[in-house]
Amino acid sequence: MPLNKLTLMPDRVEILLPDGSCLTDIEYERPEQLIPFGCRSGACGACVIEVLDGSAALGEADPDETDFLEDLGRADGNHRLACQCRLLGAATVRVAQQ
């Protein structure tokens, strides 16, 4: 299975994940929690990330995710819920400031 690179800013932490992995799967690769998460179902908003590069590699946001991001005031198109993203190529993200 091919591996894709996820880069987490600002520390430039690079993690390789299998194609199609959820971004919150990085918890299995690193001992520290690099992306906070709570529910894994797109309902809590703990895992909001800002996509800096490679948005197409994260798949399309479904309408529920888009609506929830709008409720959170993050409807600018640069934010996603990490638990709803599937890594399909290289991407660079950072955890959104609360």
From TrEMBL:
Organism expressing this protein natively? Streptomyces nodosus
InterPro entries noted in UniProt: 2Fe-2S_ferredoxin-like_sf, 2Fe-2S_ferredoxin-type, 2Fe2S_fd_BS, Beta-grasp_dom_sf
PROSITE patterns in the record: 2FE2S_FER_1, 2FE2S_FER_2
Protein name in the entry = (2Fe-2S)-binding protein
The source's domain of life comes to Bacteria
| Record domain 2Fe-2S ferredoxin-type: where | 4-98
Pfam families associated with the record = Fer2 (PF00111)
GO MF term set: 2 iron, 2 sulfur cluster binding
